[in-house]
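Lab notebook, design round three. We kept the backbone fixed and only want residue identities now. Task for the bench partner: fill in a sequence for the structure below.
Input structure tokens:
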């Protein structure tokens, strides 16, 4: 990402003054079915007035008749579509063969292209991945960032399961903090973000990261390590229930989350009858009705499957008890704490 390159093209903005906080979702055409549900879950669960900005990479955005847009209007929420301009060739993730793995696409490297143009318009900008479900009011507009430019939640699939201490040792050996956040949900304080500096630093690290990662010897995180280097020692550690990642599946934190993040290859769609719980099923069924989506349906055998899933998860909790114990210890020892720039 380069300052002045790849910014969002002017989009139609509905009448009315901008609110203090915007939530930005970024997707390509392939990710739109998932994004619809992520955005709908946000609309249904949050009490504050937010603008929603859908940043579209390589596609024009949803049809004007999409029921999601009607849902936003009915709730009094402005949903703006911004089509990202094509990046310059030297910064095109696909053209320069940026490393992506599995379900991750090159769109992941365009988060700053989506977020930075919004900073002058809003006091606070929230970036959210499309594999997130918002379950309860998170009040992201009001979370304390401790004077830092961003706030985020620890990535405990990496930090919380560092049994051998290799992640911490490698990080410290490379002169960076071993407190490492998940970049799937980030809260930006616009007044404390130097957009030009952030963009330049991101470009610099993005290039070097393709050669070597200071955190992980076999890195498959896409943009996440880059963001951690850009904001090392300059981010606020947010409460864990604001981004409960799939690593906590079967852990109590998963069931008390305000925001669930379905990291890894298995998402909340297509429906996973043997993996979902009652909270997820109820929300997906509600959204499917509102969006008139025939693709999300629960057949008659879904209810008994859910009962078996409950029993299966109880058994799996025993199987995975050592890992869950480590996660529980990590959660208990990780209160929200500020990380300030030196």
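Proposed sequence:
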């Amino acid at each position: 990402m380069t300052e002045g390159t790849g910014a969002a093209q002017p989009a139609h903005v509905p009448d009315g003054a901008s609110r203090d906080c915007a939530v930005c979702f970024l997707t390509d055409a392939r990710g739109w079915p998932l994004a619809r549900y992520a955005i709908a879950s946000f609309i249904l669960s949050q009490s504050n007035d937010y603008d929603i900005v859908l940043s579209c990479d390589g596609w024009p955005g949803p049809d004007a008749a999409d029921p999601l847009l009607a849902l936003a209007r009915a709730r009094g929420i402005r949903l703006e579509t911004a089509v990202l301009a094509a990046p310059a060739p030297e910064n095109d993730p696909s053209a320069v063969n940026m490393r992506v793995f599995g379900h991750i696409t090159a769109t992941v490297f365009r988060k700053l292209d989506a977020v930075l143009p919004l900073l002058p318009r809003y006091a606070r900008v929230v970036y959210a991945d499309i594999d997130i479900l918002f379950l309860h009011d998170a009040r992201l507009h009001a979370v304390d960032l401790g004077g830092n430019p961003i706030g985020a939640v620890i990535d405990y699939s990496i930090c919380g399961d560092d049994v051998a201490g290799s992640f911490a040792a490698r990080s410290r050996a490379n002169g960076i903090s071993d407190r490492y956040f998940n970049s799937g949900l980030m809260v930006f304080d616009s007044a404390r973000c130097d957009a030009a500096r952030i963009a330049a630093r991101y470009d610099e690290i993005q290039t070097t990261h393709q050669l070597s990662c200071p955190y992980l010897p076999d890195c498959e995180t896409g943009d996440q390590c880059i963001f951690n280097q850009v904001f090392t020692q300059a981010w606020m550690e947010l409460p864990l229930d604001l981004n409960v990642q799939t690593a906590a599946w079967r852990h109590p934190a998963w069931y008390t989350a305000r925001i669930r993040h379905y990291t890894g290859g298995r998402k909340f769609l297509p429906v996973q009858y043997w993996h979902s719980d009652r909270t997820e099923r109820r929300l997906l069924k509600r959204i499917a009705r509102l969006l008139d989506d025939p693709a999300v349906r629960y057949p008659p055998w879904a209810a008994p499957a859910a009962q078996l899933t409950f029993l299966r998860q109880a058994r799996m909790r025993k199987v995975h008890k050592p890992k869950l114990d480590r996660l529980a210890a990590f959660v208990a020892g990780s209160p929200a704490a500020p990380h300030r720039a030196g």
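Keep this in mind before ordering anything: The chain has ten helices and eleven strands.
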